[in-house]
Each structure stands twice: as structure tokens, then as C-alpha cells.
Design goal:
mainly alpha; Pemi-like Protein 1, Chain: D; 2 domains; elongated
Length: 90
Amino acid sequence: MTMQVVSVSSKGQIAIPVNYRKALSIKEGSQLVIFSDGENIILKPVDLPSEDKLSIALEKAREFAVKEGLTDEDTKTAIQESRKAKKKLV
């Protein structure tokens, strides 16, 4: 693993050195996810799926729902329960 020192601007911004951007195909507009363990910060490029991959995943989800007999109401209920659980964590 290589290491390079960068500075933080007055606005909390950093510049990712060009060698890292090239190696990880990070371009203007690329999205990164940031993690911290309380001591370290990790930036990871987000690889968003293509529209085709999303369509395939959605079709598989629909097929699963039909096979399991799930209804639109079941989906709405699951989403509501998930949102309630998430609010409790915050």
C-alpha cells in the first residue's frame, strides 16, 4: 500500500492525488463512500450498477415476490417497518 500526505482546506476539502485517481478510475463527478473506525478514514469509490443490471435485479425481485405470494401491501408494510427501525437507531 502506498502512502501520500494531503492537506485539508479551510472548507474541510482534500485533493486526491492524481496517481490514486488514475489507479481507481476516479473522475470528476465520481462518487465515493467514506468510512471511519474512529481513528482512520477510508474513501472507497462507489460502483453504481448500470441500468441493465438494475433492471435484471428488479425482475428477479418481482419473480421472487410472485413465487412467494407477496403482495404490494406486503412490500409497503416491509418498507414502513424498515423505516421505523431505522429511525429508532438514529
